Amino acid sequence: MADVAVAWARLVNQEFAICKVKDVREKQYLNEVCKYVVEGSELAKWEAEHINQFVRAAYRNRFFFSFGSLYKLAPALRAELARLKPEAQPCECGCNDFKFESLDSAVIREILKQT
Q1: What is the rounded CA–CA span in Å between residue 54 and residue 88?
Q2: pLDDT tens by residue, 40-63
Q3: CB neighbours of 20 closer than 8 A, spacing ≥ 6?
Q4: For 86-106, what is the mean pLDDT?
Q5: Which helix (H) or strand (E) holds 4?
């Protein structure tokens, strides 16, 4: 991790960087990554237009990624996850084309519609 921290610091033009490996199967990693983007208490003080600009700038950008041996395994892992995904069960009307989203993603989608 020391080598990763040195390399990351060099990439972001800092003297040092703190790097951690997080288990992405848990949701805790998301909190760890997001806190470096903006603190929730700080975001709450922003004007609506600035929040909109932030969401538009961040939309569909990757802020974290796999590297090392996990990077090489990523295609196989994605294929295995797709294989293990259960088939959608149709509802009473016969539809089986469902889209699930979190409240946050629904709000972001609505904001982006307005821009």
Answers
A1: 34
A2: 788 889 898 888 888 788 777 766
A3: 1, 32
A4: 79
A5: helix 2-11
Assign 103 to helix, strand or coil: helix
Mean residue pLDDT of the chain comes to 79
Q: Would you give the DSSP letter of residue 114?
A: T
The 3-class SS string of 7-72 reads HHHHHCCCCCCCCCCCCCCCCHHHHHHHHHHCCHHHHCCCCHHHHHHHHHHHCCCCCCCCCHHHHH
Helix (H, G, I), strand (E, B) or coil at 99: coil
CB 32 within 8 A of CB 18: no
- Above 80 in pLDDT, residue 75? yes
User: In angstroms, what CA-CA distances link 4 with 21, 60, 66, 82, 92?
Assistant: 10, 25, 13, 31, 52
Instruction: Supply the pTM of this predicted model.
Output: 0.34
- 113 membership: H or E segment, kind and range: helix 103-113
